[in-house]
């Protein structure tokens, strides 16, 4: 009952939109341009072996590697900027500037540098996911209660103890907010990288189906990408609840 009370309206809206889509696609009558949801599900079932065995693992590898690198470098840089004013003045403008460059324009350059290897897609994913993790974690560290820090200092706490007891717990909610944004963007980054230059992956397969005028085949891997993004988001939510029981995350 709690599930229906919380998500009932959203589920109802999704079903309504799917019915409208199905009806509109049937009336339009050109499935190679606008396939219906039923056509897409049927095509997804027909392509299940090649998608799940060959292309989904390739995309998932790009996403996980990109997220891992963004976590390591993003969280590390945010802590470094928090601890050093010189580092903050040097790197923070560059972090902001990195988001003003269209990633889709850089992706072909990465393909030129790294070829069709996994790294060209990983770099695109990192470039997209690095920003929300870095900025949110940095803001979280700066949001620590200064009065609480001063009290611990008067009690003889070291800088490391203040970081672990005050600054890190204060940054965790912001960190997870950035991570939830990053995991959804990582799917987009991987798809963009595969779309522009790859020999495997869901984005690559969608582009290949487009050249064959297979509308349902184009949408089938997109459905998997969407489900993958939702699954990653839910995993982060579960991790957030486990690590932040004191916050009573709903």
From TrEMBL:
A Pfam family reported for this protein in Swiss-Prot or TrEMBL: BPD_transp_1
Primary location recorded for the protein, binned into one broad class: membrane
Any one of the GO CC terms: plasma membrane
Cell membrane as UniProt keyword: yes
Transmembrane segments: 53-79, 91-116, 122-141, 175-198, 218-239
Listed GO biological process terms: transmembrane transport
Location relative to the cell: Cell membrane
Keywords: Cell membrane, Membrane, Transmembrane, Transmembrane helix, Transport
Coiled-coil zones: none
Taxonomy, superkingdom: Bacteria
Statement: the UniProt record of this protein carries the keyword tRNA processing: no
Similarity comment: family membership: Belongs to the binding-protein-dependent transport system permease family.
Membrane topology: Multi-pass membrane protein
CDD domains: TM_PBP2
Name this protein carries in UniProt: ABC transporter permease
UniProt-listed InterPro entries: MetI-like, MetI-like_sf
Record domain ABC transmembrane type-1: where: 56-236
PANTHER family named in the record: ABC TRANSPORTER PERMEASE PROTEIN HI_0355-RELATED (PTHR30151:SF20), ALKANE SULFONATE ABC TRANSPORTER-RELATED, MEMBRANE SUBUNIT (PTHR30151)
């Amino acid at each position: 009952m709690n599930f229906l009370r919380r998500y009932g309206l959203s589920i109802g809206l999704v079903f309504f939109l799917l019915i409208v889509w199905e009806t509109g696609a049937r009336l339009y009558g050109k499935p190679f341009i606008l396939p219906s949801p039923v056509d897409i599900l049927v095509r997804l079932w027909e392509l299940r072996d090649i998608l799940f065995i060959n292309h989904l693992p390739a995309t998932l590898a790009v996403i996980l590697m990109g997220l891992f690198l963004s976590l390591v470098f993003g969280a590390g840089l945010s802590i470094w900027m928090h601890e050093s004013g010189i580092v903050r003045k040097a790197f923070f403008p560059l972090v902001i500037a990195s988001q003003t460059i269209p990633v889709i324009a850089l992706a072909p350059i990465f393909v030129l540098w790294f070829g069709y290897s996994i790294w060209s897609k990983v770099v695109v994913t990192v470039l997209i996911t690095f920003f929300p993790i870095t900025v949110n974690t940095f803001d979280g560290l700066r949001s620590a209660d200064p009065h609480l820090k001063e009290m611990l200092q008067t009690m003889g706490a070291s800088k490391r103890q203040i970081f672990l007891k005050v600054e890190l717990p204060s940054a965790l909610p912001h960190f997870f907010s950035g991570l939830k944004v990053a995991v959804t963007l990582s799917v987009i980054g991987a798809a963009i990288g595969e779309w522009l230059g790859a020999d495997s992956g869901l984005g690559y397969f969608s582009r290949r189906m487009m050249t064959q005028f297979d509308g349902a085949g184009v949408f089938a891997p997109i459905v998997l990408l969407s489900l993958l993004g939702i699954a990653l988001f839910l995993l982060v939510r579960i991790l957030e609840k486990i690590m932040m029981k004191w916050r009573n995350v709903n």
